[in-house]
Predict the structure.
Amino acid sequence: MTKSNHQTTANPPSSEAHKSLSMYEAVLARFNQAAEIYNLPTDIADILRVPQKQVKVNLPVMMDNGKVQVFEGYRIIHSTYLGPSKGGIRYGLDVNDDEVKALAAWMTYKCAVAGLPLGGAKGGITCDPRSMSVGELERLTRQYTLAMVDVFGPNLDIPAPDMNTGKREMAWIVDEYSKLKRESTPGVVTGKPVTLGGSKGRESATGRGVMIHTLEAMKKIGIDRKKSTAAVQGFGNVGSFAAKMLHSKNITVVAISDYTGAYYNEKGIDLDRALQHQKAHKNTLEGFTGGDKISNEELLTLEVDVLVPAALQNQISAEIAHKIKAKLIVEGANGPTEVEADEILHDKGIIVVPDILANSGGVTVSYFEWVQNKQGFYWQEDEVNNRHDTYMQQAFEQVWYNSKQYKTNLRLGAYITAFKKLEKALRYRGNY
Ligand code: GLU
């Protein structure tokens, strides 16, 4: 990290400088822009600019071929000022400490924007989950839990699913953690199977949140949803549920994609058929015949009303931003838009609902799951969904209001919304 990142009121780096930004530097670039507009006091900025705790572990795992392989694992706690830290765990070949650090910081802002009494954290393991057997993944997940037994805890740090993890991995963590602690501890993670204390509505929550934010933004900018079209990049947990939810509100989803390709159908993609295809084809859309095959770039630059990037980070570069024709972008993924694209999209009048608002439905229902675990009393799905929608609508309103108040875009408006809450919490906590 360069020294210039430590100046709160430094001018945002020029777009040239953005080109080589790491993910955490990209977080800081936005942080610095918002801190300058809001005039965030230097002491608060200095505290928030760095994570509170970073844990790195090496995990030996017995592979199916009888050889031991050592994997790198991370858990980075960005903050615990609003409550215990919260955030997912991702598995992937390119997982590294810079990425996990960026994602941990976003969790702090995401929880604050959504109005949750939680701080931010993220975890990850550098591995290739697609090439590993279920047994190898289970042993890896249990090793990681053992290594993090003093980091995790229902009142300390509460993981959840993220890329390439889901309820199966969460179930292994609950089991391992409960055995180690010699007591049933469902509240140590969220995103569990419902039979192990998970919440109804959690799996679809991030997609549901994307839908609520799409509708709220459409109302503000005057798009008639019944005549509108959407393209969704990514067909994992976030993208597939987002597409289904948008469709349920009469928005025509004309394009979907996954890492094997993108598919376009101007009449609307048959989403149930796409889901069935995915199930029957090793969880991919490869060979899907419900639409014409197009490139990833073609999907991102389609003439649609709404674009939902719900795949990986850094998908919308400056070059792509120049070609985007959507009126509204709702960021289902974390960090899909590069820093230098922000200004281009803003100048083109494209409204971007930023990740820390747009995909906060997942952690909001995670919070409800944690509350239900504490109560030992479980809610009906309608109750979960209704509460979720209220939280999301309130968060959207606050971010919209702050972006107008501070004459900035929704991304920086979201950071400012979070700053207001974090500044208060830090002041109440007092001096050290
Ligand atoms: N991994 C999700 C996210 O990035 C969910 C985190 C959680 O539920 O704690 O928001």
User: Anything to note?
Assistant: Confidence is low (pLDDT under 50) at residues 1-18.
